[in-house]
Amino acid sequence: MRIEGSLHDEIDRVLFSEDEILREIQRVAGEITRAYSGLEFTVVSVLKGSCIFAADLVRKIPLPLSLSFVSAESYHAGTVAGALSLRWLHADEEICGRHVLLVDDIVDSGSTLSAIRDELVRLGAFEIRTCVFLDKPARRKVALTIDFRCFEVEDVFVVGYGLDHAGRHRNLPFVASLRSGTSVAAAPRE
After folding, report:
1. How far are the Cα atoms of 26, 43, 85, 102 from residue 66, in angstroms, in the given order?
2. Domain ranges of the chain
3. DSSP 3-48
4. Whose CA is closest to 98, among 123, 119, 70, 127?
5. Which residue out of 104, 105, 108, 135 is catalytically annotated?
6. What pLDDT shows up at residue 188?
7. Is 108 a catalytic residue?
């Protein structure tokens, strides 16, 4: 039964299925496990977008770790980036002097991830590596090394698996592009 007005009406095509996502998370978790073996580290999840990815990822890493969160907001309800504001990032025992794995849903221009990385350095992180669910290098404006990634994605606006458009679509178990005319056209995410 198809419900008119459902989230699926706005989907153009599925880019990564739920099964593909779970396989890639398992692969990346293995890489992270090897890289952090024997180290104490903190995973810093960038909210809200990476919460689903980070939750699935950390459950696949069989190492002791701390989990922290940062809220980075630049889009508010629109599709054009504005001023970046960071909340909930504290220089306590989870950051200062620690190895940090910064986890985000998508890296587009690189501005947001770069700004958070700079703040982690300022707060005294010993070492910072980055892990992203989706990497969109075609839109990169900031030189940024991505240490771990699940997928490289083409230059389209994507939703699902934590990624949203104006707060919608985060709950989809797959990643998809939006249908043309859904009031957004390949708008960047930071």
Report:
1. 19, 6, 23, 12
2. 18-156
3. PTT-GGGGEEEEEE-HHHHHHHHHHHHHHHHHHHTT--EEEEEEET
4. 127
5. 108
6. 44
7. yes
Sign of CA dihedral 48, 189, 75, 167: negative
- 184, 23 contact by CB (below 8 A): no
Residue 51 has pLDDT above 90, yes or no: yes
Residue 168: partners with Cβ closer than 8 Å, 6 or more residues away: 7, 10, 159
Tens of pLDDT, residues 22-50:
999 999 999 999 999 999 999 999 988 89
Q: pLDDT tens, 58-111?
A: 999 999 999 999 887 665 444 445 556 665 666 677 888 999 999 999 999 999
CATH number at 18-156: 3.40.50.2020
Amino acid at 32: I
Cβ proximity of 33 and 63 under 8 Å: yes
Tokens describing residue 178: 């939006």
Phi, psi values for residue 21, rounded to 5°: -60, -50
Residue 144 has pLDDT above 80, yes or no: yes
CA 148 to CA 136: how far, in whole Å? 13
Residue 58 phi, psi (nearest 5): -65, -30
Residues 111 and 141: beta-carbon distance below 8 Å: yes
pTM, two decimal places: 0.85
